[in-house]
């Protein structure tokens, strides 16, 4: 499952927690993702925002220091601390969620010992900073003990990991629900298809039963009608052979009988060749066999 720290937590709430933590402890925390994008930041020092990160040379030092600190974090689960090239200290720890390194927690900028004012006075002269303003910014940077920092970092990394694990659990649960819903839809569609096929099979079974009944009745009827009709045909042939020249009306009557015998013979032939159960509407509540569709001929 692919995810980032921002996918798992409410960053606005994390920002609020970080601000409260900073007011309570004086430790300025920030969080970046593994690509270096800042997600949460609190208490960035004026010496950095208004001096070091505005001058191109000191900004380059900041970037170099950030890169070095990130290298120390790579593949590790402990802390990394680094005194940046501009003279301040940063501390960082990875945020691990689900055995993945998803973000970094930073604490900084601060001093571990009282600052060397002469170092910063020379630095102001080197880069053209206003000495008074610059040293005032130096004085505002907190001096923190390593023990206090480690306690704070322990708390923040544990809290961030806990919130991330909760978010990951929620994400996994949501994905599981989606998977289950998809399975239910798939099963429902399969059941609907099976029911439809069952209905078709049942309907075909009923049609086959009706066809069997029709075939039995049609076979019996055709057999019963065939013999009398054949006798009638022979009789008509015989009578037509006995006619004289003056028997015109009788001849016409016999020809009409011959035509009807032929029609009946064709009808019986259709009945004998019924292969499917096809019906036609005869009245509002009655259906009859459609011989033309039901018969092969």
**So what's the overall shape?**
rod-shaped
* Spatial extent as radius of gyration: 49 Å
By secondary-structure content and strand pairing, the structural class works out as alpha+beta
Number of strands: 7
Q: What average pLDDT do the residues reach? A: 83
Order of helices and strands: HHEEHHEEEHHHHEEH
CATH architecture of the largest domain: 2-Layer Sandwich
CATH class category name of the largest domain? Alpha Beta
Uncertain stretches of 5 or more adjacent residues: none
Q: Your description of this structure?
A:
There is one protein chain. Helix content is 64%, strand content 14%. The chain has 297 residues and is α+β, with helices and mostly antiparallel strands. Helix 5 (117-127) crosses helix 6 (131-140) and helix 7 (146-242) packs antiparallel against helix 8 (248-272). The chain has a 5-stranded antiparallel sheet, with helices on both faces. A two-stranded antiparallel ribbon has the order 6-7. The chain is built from 9 helices and 7 strands. It folds into 2 domains: 5-144, 2-Layer Sandwich (Beta-Lactamase); 210-294.
List the helices and strands and how they pair.
Blueprint: H1 5-8, H2 11-25, E1 29-33, E2 38-41, H3 46-52, H4 56-73, E3 80-83, E4 89-97, E5 100-110, H5 117-127, H6 131-140, H7 146-242, H8 248-272, E6 279-283, E7 286-289, H9 291-294
Antiparallel strand pairs: 1-2, 1-5, 3-4, 4-5, 6-7
